[in-house]
Specification:
Elements: E1 2-15, H1 24-31, E2 40-53, H2 63-78, E3 81-82, H3 83-86, H4 89-92, H5 97-108, E4 114-122, E5 125-129, E6 135-148, H6 157-164, E7 173-186, H7 197-212, E8 215-216, H8 217-220, H9 231-248, E9 252-259, E10 265-269, H10 278-283
Parallel strand pairs: 1-3, 6-8
Antiparallel strand pairs: 1-2, 2-4, 4-5, 5-6, 6-7, 7-9, 9-10
Amino acid sequence: MQCIINRRAEFSASHRYWLPELSEAENRSTFGLCANAPGHGHNYTLYVLMAGQIDEYGMVLNLSDVKHVIKREVTGQLDFSFLNDVWPEFQQTLPTTENIARVIWQKLSPHLPLVRIQLFEHPELSAEYLGNGMEAYLTVGTHFSAAHRLARPDLSFEENTEIYGKCARPHGHGHNYQLEVTVKGEIDSRTGMIVDLVALQKAIEDYVVEPFDHTFLNKDIPHFAEVVPTAENIAVYIGQLLQNPIQELGAELHKIKLIESANNSCEIYASDLEAVSSKRVASEPVLLPV
């Protein structure tokens, strides 16, 4: 039987975004505060996902062996290092989160049956690499607070209560939403970036966080006057808002994940957005647990 296993590891390291062929002004324009000398540091969290058959001992791989491979090939070399200098790959292509994930794959793939490398630079910035050349995924996290009411305007209060329960109460209720936006693109062979991170964060702020934060979604966001603002529908609309701005930055929207609470979250893939119309979303309510 095929099974995917996941091994977690950590390392602490510093890095600097700086290209010697650029002037100081150009480096600061491109990389912002990340160009500051002598660099800055992170506590990185690494997830190594591997696939294989379950053997007669009930294992895909001996996790003790996996631990030693990861330490020997990756964390033992990177921990408490200045990444720009530790591996020659980072002198050619800067050690961005997405490029670190790519190079870690290269170091581990001769030894382990990898299916995915996921690297967290901090809780709101992570990258995934699946072994596809220079293609990688970058996830940016953020948050906003908003209230909503789950009720279709064409139904009575009793009918809405039957569908949505407490969420149909007239004055609504609020959430501290956690939003994760994942984009896909090619890692630039010099900067190590698939997209300008500052520009991506600004697009998310301008198109989603600023308009949505501290609003009553049903009343303050015109789209939700007719579309029920379930977590699912909010995620779809966020995807629709961000798809073109992200494309203009040279990347591709891959996924929207919206976490409404510790109990409720949803994920929308950009590949499905074309098939979703506002009319269809509005006419197909989804019952959410309270």
